[in-house]
Amino acid sequence: MSRIAIVTGASSGIGAATARALSRDGFELVLGARRLERLEALAAEIGGRAVRLDVADPASVEELAAAVSACDVLVNNAGGALGLEPLAAADEEKWRQMYESNVLGTMRMTRALLPALVASGDGHVVNVTSIAGFETYRGGAGYTAAKHAQRALTRTLRLELLGQPVRVTEVAPGMVETEFSLVRFDGDEEAADRVYEGMRPLSGEEVAECIRWAVAQPSHVNVDEIVVRPRAQATATEVHRD
Ligand code: NJP
């Protein structure tokens, strides 16, 4: 019987690439995100189930958890950034949404699936955080605060699961060209393109390979964290451009 992996935010970017990578490794996939049509297209390609999921909605998380019979791997990837305003102009709604998707979403999914992960006898939670989980930059307070919190909950979970058959891994990427910047700048393609101008960012597939590799290790091997950035990026703001 194949092992079951649930990937949140599987409708684009790192999440979609992770679903493909885990599928190639023999996992049966449960794909979660709000844009169901995209998930259905991916499910048609790699098999598995597409489930509409809004991690910001407790009822939606509960519905997904009730719909799956088992879970071996949970990839908490749903999330992202909204805006780049300085703190002095902070938009409360954007802050709330970032906290909901990145932090509470990770908490809700993990809480709901933990019984199944433990019952599997060899469970694995992979949280996609960010270098924003341990760095700060101007205009990034809402996102970095959320990612710092997501990182803190990941490290806490690792402590709390000691002695249980569940691994906990944090994958913290730097710049990855996905829909991330398009979402951050509310659909402004020029602003999104400027982020990657003159440098080669990571692809979603390259981050997915880190996740796939951590999951593929023998079950007694816990890869605690992976920080992965483009060669042209040293910190969130130190970027070499040609
Ligand atoms: O971005 P994008 P990435 N409920 O926008 C989903 C982190 N990261 O792949 O619901 C359920 O292509 C959304 O699906 P939909 C980043 O913080 C990135 O780069 O259909 N799903 C989509 O599938 C995030 O945690 C970079 O709109 C929700 C996915 O999330 C992760 O990587 C750098 C949702 C976002 O896909 C994947 O982002 C870094 C909700 N409420 C960390 N809200 C980077 N790209 O540079 C969103 O350090 N989604």
Q: Given the helix and strand composition, which structural class is it?
A: alpha/beta
**Unreliable runs:** none
**Count of individual helical segments:** 8
Strand order of the largest sheet: 3-2-1-4-5-6-9
How would you spell out the order of helices and strands?
Answer: EHEHEHEHEHEEHHEHE
Major sheet details: 7 strands, parallel
Helix-residue proportion: 40-55%
Approximately how much beta-strand content do the residues carry? Answer: 15-25%
Tell me how many strands there are. Answer: 9
- Distinct compounds present: 5-hydroxy-NICOTINAMIDE-ADENINE-DINUCLEOTIDE PHOSPHATE
Rg calc: 17 Å
Which geometry do the CA atoms define? globular
Question: How confident is the prediction overall: mean pLDDT?
Answer: 98
Instruction: Give the end-to-end Cα distance, rounded to a whole number of Å.
Output: 50 Å
Could you please describe the fold and organization of this structure?
The protein is of the alpha/beta class and 242 residues long. Helix 3 runs parallel beside helix 4. 44% of the residues lie in helices and 17% in strands. The chain has a 7-stranded parallel beta sheet with strand order 3-2-1-4-5-6-9, sandwiched between helices. A two-stranded parallel ribbon has the order 7-8. Bound molecules: 5-hydroxy-NICOTINAMIDE-ADENINE-DINUCLEOTIDE PHOSPHATE. Residues 8-9, 11-15, 33-35, 53-56, 77-80, 101-102, 105, 128, 130-132, 173-176, 178-180, 183, 204 line the site of 5-hydroxy-NICOTINAMIDE-ADENINE-DINUCLEOTIDE PHOSPHATE.
